[in-house]
Amino acid sequence: MMNMIFLFSLPGGGELIVIVFVVLLLFGGKKIPELMRGLGKGIREFNNARNSIEEEIKEGMKESEHKKIEENKSAEVK
Predict the structure, then answer these.
(1) Whole-prediction pTM value?
(2) For residue range 52-76, what is the model confidence (pLDDT) as tens digits?
(3) SS3 73
């Protein structure tokens, strides 16, 4: 069980240097800015989608609260 936790831990300084070196070897210096732009764009799109879903959920919750209040008011009138 403890080994599974260590498998998903963050890489340290040495591992990060090796990862950066491998990325440089695979993609070259000219392609890295392109990759980072694409990564940034993907993250931005993900965050926008997440925010819109959160807003839809909040609106749905507000609508259901308003319906409950209206139902309670109409039940009190009867």
Answers:
(1) 0.54
(2) 999 999 999 999 888 888 888 777 7
(3) helix
